[in-house]
Amino acid sequence: MSLWKTPIASNYKKDMVLFDYPLLRIWVGSMIVLGLILPFLTSSYFIHLMNLCFLATLGAIGLNIVTGYTGLVSLGTGGFLCAGAFIAVILNIELHTPFWVNIIAALVGGSILGLIAGLPALRLKGIYLLLSTLAIHFIIVYFCGRYQILKGYIGGIPISDPNIGAGVVLNTTIKWYYFLLAILIMVTIFCLNIERTHIGRAWIALRDRDIVANILGVNVGYYKLLSFTFSSGLIGVAGCLTAYYVHFVAYEEFTIWTSVIYLAMIIIGGIGSIAGSYFGAFIVTFLPYFLHWIVESFRLPTRMELYFSSVEQAVFGFIMILFLLVEPMGLVGLWRLKVRPYFELWPFKYRRAIATRR
């Protein structure tokens, strides 16, 4: 059996396998092993960057649920992140609730806000739905900003290190690394499985042909609202964890650019793919640090640093346009449609083999 080819499922058990071909299982196993030993192989600063990647991946997976699986474009990601972060901070300051209670509250609060944001999706599509989610973003950030200002926290609201139980306090980058890695693995497995349930299949049906899905009996309104609820709840959890990790929350940090960055993650990685959320989140998170490294390594003029934010945005925009024009399915689509078929058919010519099949 080839390492590249997916075997034909002869029974239900084989059809339910998450990683369907040998090379994928080897790759996933290798990544898990590498993830477990990585803190012993690299510096604390790199582990900090990995933690930022994990947090970004959680939010990207949430956005991919509503945009990638259901086909509903949203610019409310920044608002839901802000809501999750402020819910955690408010409960921590006002009620002194435990860490896990704050996570659940961020999940529930984000889901409720997502349900409200999803109501326009019952009537709106395309650019009109995009604008409605953008309005939700501004509304959430406004109320969070009012709370921060009224409480007198001008530069941001501080938050202490969380206690996850059994006397374990997340006060080092390595502890955070393993905690976020465990959370991310659980969320990934859950989302991969929900994709294959009737809920995931209904979402995909809505994305591909919503009118046909409605004719076939799919409750379009229910599954749209469910998608927004599930997505925003997960994004709210990502916002909560981010607040605890960086030790403070400021509403000024959650701009429209935040939502655009997360949209760039799933476009670059691959819309409608959990793996694409990983790839996009890692690339987008590491890109600013890579640009800084270029400026410092090549000793570019100091004027470049003054305009670094504009250069960064220009690079993001160029990459998004490049992927939309050249490979709309992102890196995962590039792998599935071009790279993997090439190696499956090697040493035969890829195009000739496809023509022969037709």
Structure explained in plain terms:
There is one protein chain. With 358 residues, the protein is mainly alpha-helical. The chain has a domain at 20-255. It is 73% helix and 3% strand. The protein contains 15 helices and 4 strands. The chain has helices at residues 12-15, 22-37, 44-69, 77-95, 99-118, 126-150, 173-194, 198-215, 220-246, 256-269, 274-297, 302-306, 308-326, 330-345, 350-357, and strands spanning 157-158, 163-165, 168-169, 248-249. The protein has a two-stranded antiparallel ribbon with strand order 1-4. A two-stranded antiparallel ribbon has the order 2-3. The chain is globular, with a radius of gyration of 21 Å.
Total count of strands: 4
Strand order of the largest sheet: 1-4
- What is the quaternary state of this protein? single chain
Proportion of residues in helical segments: over 70%
Q: Stretches where pLDDT falls below 50 for ≥5 residues?
A: 1-7, 352-358
Please indicate the percent range of residues in DSSP E strands (runs of 2 or more).
Answer: under 5%
Helix count? 15
Order of helices and strands: HHHHHHEEEHHHEHHHHHH
The gyration radius over C-alpha positions equals 21 Å
| Largest sheet descriptor | 2 strands, antiparallel
Shape: globular
Mean pLDDT: 85
The end-to-end distance, rounded to whole angstroms, is 24 Å
What class do helices, strands and sheet pairing give? mainly alpha
